[in-house]
Amino acid sequence: MTETVGGPTTDTGESAAAKPSRGRGKTGAKRAPGLTVQRVFTTEGVHPYEEVEWERRDVVMTNWRDGTVNFEQRGVEFPRSWSVNATNIVTSKYFRGAVGSDTRESSLKQLVERVVGTYKRAGLEHGYFATDGDAEIFDHELTWMLIHQVFSFNSPVWFNVGTASPQQVSACFILSVDDTMESILNWYREEGLIFKGGSGAGLNLSRIRSSKELLSSGGTASGPVSFMRGADASAGTIKSGGATRRAAKMVVLDVDHPDIEEFVETKAKEEAKVRVLRDAGFDMDLGGSDITSVQYQNANNSVRVTDEFMRAVEGGTDFGLRARMTGEVIERVDARTLFRGIAEAAWNCADPGIQYDGTINDWHTTPESGRISASNPCSEYMHLDNSSCNLASLNLLKFLDSDDRFDAETFAKAVELIITAMDISICFADFPTEPIADTTRKFRQLGIGYANLGALLMATGHAYDSEGGRALAGSITSLMTGAAYKRSAELAGVVGPYEGYARNAESHQRVIRKHAAENDRIRTFASSTPVQKLATEVWKQCQDIGQVNGWRNAQASVLAPTGTIGLMMDCDTTGIEPDLALVKFKKLVGGGSMQIVNQSVRRALDNLGYQAEQAEAIVEYVAEHGHVVDAPGMKPEHYEVFDCAMGDRTIAPMGHVRMMAAAQPFLSGAISKTVNMPERASVEDVERIYLEGWRLGLKALAIYRDNCKVGQPLSAGKGGDKKADAEPEKHVVVEQRPVRKRLPKKRPSETVSFTVGGAEGYLTAGSYPDDGLGEIFVKLGKQGSTLAGVMDAFSMSISVGLQYGIPLEFYVSKFSNLRFEPAGMTDDPDVRIATSVLDYLFRRLALDHLPYEKRAQLGIFSSDERSAQVENDYGTGEKLDMEEFRSSVPTTEERKEAGVDPAPVEVGSSTELLELRLGKAADAPLCMTCGTKMRPAGSCYLCEGCGSTSGCS
């Protein structure tokens, strides 16, 4: 697509300054006159806008909880092919100008021209293009890819580029702090400035001396954990000052720091406090009035472990904690005990994560300029302190050709174009602090990545957790980074290598060789062989050109969460994630919504060889049931292709880790991803995940165990009445003349006292002598109160229904997971968290009166049963026996009897749709902006309703 002209060469000393120029550099070395750009997507003489059908739409976004309008702009112009969701998010998030004013952007054309025009002008000004004609082609190619949703820049580009605001283009920041009060206070200030701009930052606190060391004055130091309190309060204050999402920050501490145990336990102890306060009646929901009393909640915590420590864990030996000032060992601890503490804390509250220092710095291109000691909040950007990275992500599904083969050649050319644009942005970008500006301009860190990998694998008939799927993912990642670095080497011949290259040339070349060597180790399959073959050629060209020119960028690629921009590109999956579920929620033009089966399902069936009639029948089955198990004509060996992150068949946690390991050797940075684990997972399972991540060569890893946090899942409790009202009326088929079976005058009964979210009550359940439930009485609230009266009437109606033969499991499926206050922690060890009093009551009744088989269909287990499941079926890595699996899946009739019908359209997001379909809650918070239930995206959460994220830009 593009090529250099004039035989690019470079000097071997310190490079030219960050602002390149045509002709000769500072040292007089000859430069190529610029890039000659060739057309790939566009046609000469035809503007990209002319190839698209445009239409005007009205964007009216309402709050899911109360129906109020929170954004409205009518008559906006978008391509007809864009979804309503993408239109809404781009209009509300990225259009600039006051709503209702003449200066407000009203067309995607204006947005694209504002951004692409700025890149084109900067490219011409700084000598990137051979001619004005090449710049024009560059403009058209970028425009075509953007309006066809082939890729997207990160959000700060859309917010800021081409506006009167500072033109910040970076989403990822790393700060630094030293062992002085001045540096610590400056940390608070710089972090605040970044939060104010809507971005996040990370840093390593390990330079701060521990609470076990002395100050120069003779006193004892307070340690880094104490200073985390101030930074956490600052982040919370800035967030509450008007931002629409939480402040995003990462705090890292080295495993050999003497305060490491205190650091590891900080958030786990605070989570215990949350539970106690919740039980005492305080409002501890996410965003609740009393949650501010809990500390350390505005940061992700990570422990930076060394290879030495991990080997000590494997060998069961002790490990030395070192003084910050002298480096001497001041305490020795048992490595396995410390590692166990890290895993227990993560099991309890999902923090801390792990960063593998040895792997990170072994792949470091500029070690002579400093070590990599920290990351951005989502852990994908890892480079020097006081630096930043701008991101862009490609939509992989756009590169499938008419035969559903991955078009590697076009993909590589698109990468070259995008990486050129990303580098140009550093020439005009503004930065929140001068140290960050200086480092970024000297090293020019970029982070190209992709989205829709999960959808691509499913569409092409690959299981996410399979050798073939990992081979294709690894080959694509290798080609992406190889093409990016190849273009970076070509740019170095045009506008000079990055300023720090000369000092780090040997190390940078070594890392490039490591990438190329890992590419040669990919075990290829039919679908991945052409991609890997082209990647091999690209890496060879990259090394040859780089040997002469050096490289323009110290790093080129990361895998970011692609939250909001993933929605902008209409991606089914974000980043490296698999599909969330086989059915999803879709907004319609003119209002309303519907559930649809993901398009990847039909494409997968076609590629797996199913006839059109068979495929249609299977798609209909998926639409009704949400999974493919027992679908008509479906081969059991193909079930794994349709495994998802949530649902009836979920990908095992180690499957996520193995996919990360397939991509990691081909990334300059790391991967933003949280490995979700079931609630029944054990501490040993967490240890195994963290240990395997190190062995497989990952740079960072975090886990989240379902329901391990109080505030997060329970934040979905408010506004639950809306969703309850949205459920369609279920029709129970009964005999034409039902007969009431009354209880005898003397019958066995059992009374249970309970507490839900601080509300106390009593449940009395009376049974028939033959052990069938026949009546319930619920006492809740003061005698004579409205609540007490309503509960009496409710109990009476349920009792009469039971006596007329309505199955208890029907009531359980209807009333469990209803969400309204009071909700929260209970005093029942079998039902730790309830989303409402009714949710608790019917879970308790199910546990006491339903057999295990029926409870398993409803997803209700006792604490002992959950523990037993850990030993029986979790983490073994073995494939399930299909006959055994099918026998455990409820039949259609059983599902109908349990009240599980196709989900209604009155939902706010795919996560809500999934909850209604599966009859169980997903661990995700409500969006603070619009109230919609969010869904996982990388290591944060994404709102499908308005595009907000829970911490990732």
From TrEMBL:
<feature type="compositionally biased region" description="Polar residues">
    <location>
        <begin position="1"/>
        <end position="13"/>
    </location>
</feature>
<feature type="region of interest" description="Disordered">
    <location>
        <begin position="1"/>
        <end position="33"/>
    </location>
</feature>
<protein>
    <recommendedName>
        <fullName>Vitamin B12-dependent ribonucleotide reductase</fullName>
        <ecNumber>1.17.4.1</ecNumber>
    </recommendedName>
</protein>
<dbReference type="InterPro" id="IPR050862">
    <property type="entry name" value="RdRp_reductase_class-2"/>
</dbReference>
<keyword id="KW-0560">Oxidoreductase</keyword>
<keyword id="KW-0547">Nucleotide-binding</keyword>
<keyword id="KW-0846">Cobalamin</keyword>
<dbReference type="Pfam" id="PF08471">
    <property type="entry name" value="Ribonuc_red_2_N"/>
</dbReference>
<dbReference type="GO" id="GO:0004748">
    <property type="term" value="F:ribonucleoside-diphosphate reductase activity, thioredoxin disulfide as acceptor"/>
</dbReference>
<dbReference type="InterPro" id="IPR013678">
    <property type="entry name" value="RNR_2_N"/>
</dbReference>
<feature type="region of interest" description="Disordered">
    <location>
        <begin position="883"/>
        <end position="906"/>
    </location>
</feature>
<dbReference type="InterPro" id="IPR013344">
    <property type="entry name" value="RNR_NrdJ/NrdZ"/>
</dbReference>
<dbReference type="InterPro" id="IPR024434">
    <property type="entry name" value="TSCPD_dom"/>
</dbReference>
<dbReference type="Pfam" id="PF02867">
    <property type="entry name" value="Ribonuc_red_lgC"/>
</dbReference>
<dbReference type="Pfam" id="PF12637">
    <property type="entry name" value="TSCPD"/>
</dbReference>
<comment type="similarity">
    <text>Belongs to the ribonucleoside diphosphate reductase class-2 family.</text>
</comment>
<keyword id="KW-0237">DNA synthesis</keyword>
<feature type="domain" description="Ribonucleotide reductase class II vitamin B12-dependent N-terminal">
    <location>
        <begin position="59"/>
        <end position="149"/>
    </location>
</feature>
<dbReference type="InterPro" id="IPR000788">
    <property type="entry name" value="RNR_lg_C"/>
</dbReference>
<feature type="compositionally biased region" description="Basic and acidic residues">
    <location>
        <begin position="883"/>
        <end position="899"/>
    </location>
</feature>
<keyword id="KW-1015">Disulfide bond</keyword>
<keyword id="KW-0170">Cobalt</keyword>
<comment type="function">
    <text>Catalyzes the reduction of ribonucleotides to deoxyribonucleotides. May function to provide a pool of deoxyribonucleotide precursors for DNA repair during oxygen limitation and/or for immediate growth after restoration of oxygen.</text>
</comment>
<feature type="domain" description="Ribonucleotide reductase large subunit C-terminal">
    <location>
        <begin position="170"/>
        <end position="704"/>
    </location>
</feature>
<feature type="domain" description="TSCPD">
    <location>
        <begin position="744"/>
        <end position="847"/>
    </location>
</feature>
